[in-house]
Specification:
Layout: E1 8-12, H1 17-28, E2 32-37, H2 40-49, E3 55-58, H3 64-78, E4 84-87, H4 102-130, E5 133-138, H5 151-171, E6 175-182, H6 188-193, H7 196-204, H8 214-225, E7 236-239
Parallel strand pairs: 1-2, 1-4, 2-3, 4-5, 5-6, 6-7
Helix pairs in contact: 1-8, 3-4, 4-5
Length: 252
Amino acid sequence: MRGLEGKRVLITGGAQGIGAATAVRFLEEGARVFVLDCDDSALNHFKDTHPALSGTITADVSDAHQVMQAFEELDRLTGGGPDVLINNAGISIRHRFMDISPQEWRQVLDVNLHGVFFVAQQAARRMLAAHGGVILNMGSTNGLMGYPYYADYNASKAGVIELTRSMALELAPSVRVNAICPGYILTPMQEAEYTPEMLRACQRKIPLGRLGQPEEVAALFAFLASDEAAFITGQCFVIDGGEIAGGLASQL
C-alpha cells in the first residue's frame, strides 16, 4: 500500500486476534508499529515473537487516566504521537438480555465504546496538531443488525459507528476517520464463545461459505490507512462474506 512505510501506527488490543494480525500486516508494510494491550502476558509473548515491533504499552483503554499515560509514553517513543490509530480493543460476553447484570453492561460499554472514545480523542489531539492522520475504529456487523445474546455488545458497536461518523465530520480535513465492521471472524474471542457446531451453523449462513480470517480484516485496515484511501472518510466498511447482504428471504 502506498504511504505506509515509516508511518507510526498504534494498535490497541494488538496482542491477539485481529489486532495481532493487523500489527503483523503493518510491519510487512514497513510501518513503525506500537501495540497497546491490557494483557501483560500476551503482550510480552507477542513482543518476543515479533522483535520488529517499535514498542509495546500496557494499558486498560476503559480507564481514561491510563489512556492519557499511555499516550504520554507513546509521545516519548515516537516523538509526536501516531500517524495511524487502529482502535481495535474490545470484549464481548454471550448472555441473554434479561441476564445482563449492571456490572457486565458497564464492562462491555466501558471497553468497547468509552475506550474507543478515550483513545481516539488522545490520538486526534496529536494528529490535529500535526495536520494529518488516520483513525480506524473497530465496529461490527452487530452494530448494524440485531443479534440475540449480545445486547450490550450490539449497543456498544452501534455507538462506535455513530461516533466514527461524528468524528469524521469534525476532524476533517486533517484527519480521516472510518470504521470496519467485521462479521464472523475466526478469532480466539469467537472460539471461546462458540462451540464447533455453533461455528459451523454460522458458516452455513455466510454466502461465501466460510468464516473470515484475521489477516483479511488486517488487509482492509492497511488499505484504509494508506494513501490509496485518501478520499475515504466517515464510512463503515462491512467485511462479512456477504452475511448481512440479505434478510430472512436470502436464507436457503
